[in-house]
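Sequence and fold
=================
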Amino acid sequence: MESLVACWLTAAEESRPRLPARQLHALRTVRLRPELNLTALAEQLGVGLPTASRLCDRLEAAGLLERNVQPRNRREVQLVVTAYAQRLLTDVAERRVRRLATVFEAMTPAQRTALQHGLSGFHEAHTAAGRPEETEG
């Protein structure tokens, strides 16, 4: 598992700008659920509202996130991933795919099948334990 996590994180660390995992996770979450406001993002990330707000401040300052005030309710702020962030997330995903593909190609078919079964079992147990699943990497 440590090797898988290292492979996953290294791909993200090679991207520019280099973002902490929590910021990448926040961007992916907003991209997948564009209806999110700050409160909903905090809930999704399992952090407090002040922490989510500071995280969004950093992403906004980097040009990766925008906060749009809703015309119907000026207290409601919608979070939007910028085109720059879209390119960054695509780059990270492509790097991860390439790294993982290199590793998978070095494995035998039997090893890949065993990994697939093991990861399916892990996913089922993780879901059954009531953990929110991440749908995109």
Notes: The beta strands are 65-69, 77-81.
